[in-house]
Amino acid sequence: SQSNNSTMMKVQKKQPTTTQVAPPKLIPLRPVIPKPSSITPNRPLVPPIIDRNNNSVTSLKPKISTTKNSSVIVLD
C-alpha cells in the first residue's frame, strides 16, 4: 500500500503543477489581444474596413487590408 501512496502523491503533484502552469501561459496571450484597444482611435476613422476584414486586419493595417486582401496572409 505504501508504494501505491508514493505513486499517487507523485501523480497528484504533477497534475497540479501542469494545470497551474497552463493558465499563466494562456493569460499572457490574452493581454496581447487588448493591444488593439489602443488603436481604437483609428477604428472610427475607417469603420467600413473593419467590417470587411472582420476587425482582424484593421487592427494592424486597416488601409493595406482594404487595398489588398492578401495582406491578411502576411499578418498571419
In short:
The chain is mainly alpha-helical and 76 residues long. Helix content is 80%, strand content 0%.
Which descriptors apply to this entry?
single chain; 76 residues; mainly alpha; rod-shaped
How does this model look, in words?
The chain is an all-alpha fold and 76 residues long. It has helices at 2-32, 36-39, 42-45, 47-52, 56-60, 62-67, 71-75. The protein folds into two domains: 1-32; 39-76, no CATH class. It has seven helices and no strands. The radius of gyration is 22 Å and the shape is rod-shaped. The termini are far apart. 9% of the residues are buried. Residues 46-50 have low confidence and may be disordered. Residues 1-21 have a biased composition (Polar residues). Residues 1-55 are annotated as: Disordered.
Order of helices and strands: HHHHHHH
What is the distance, rounded to the nearest whole angstrom, between the alpha carbons of the first and last residues? 54 Å
DSSP, total strands: 0
Q: Could you tell me the mean pLDDT?
A: 52
Biggest sheet record: none
Poorly predicted residue ranges: 46-50
- Strand content is under 5%
How does the helix and strand content classify structurally? mainly alpha
Helix content: over 70%
Helical element count? Answer: 7
Q: How many domains comprise the coordinates? A: 2
Cα gyration radius (Å): 22 Å
**How would you sum up the global shape?**
rod-shaped
Region (Disordered): 1-55
Biased composition (Polar residues): 1-21
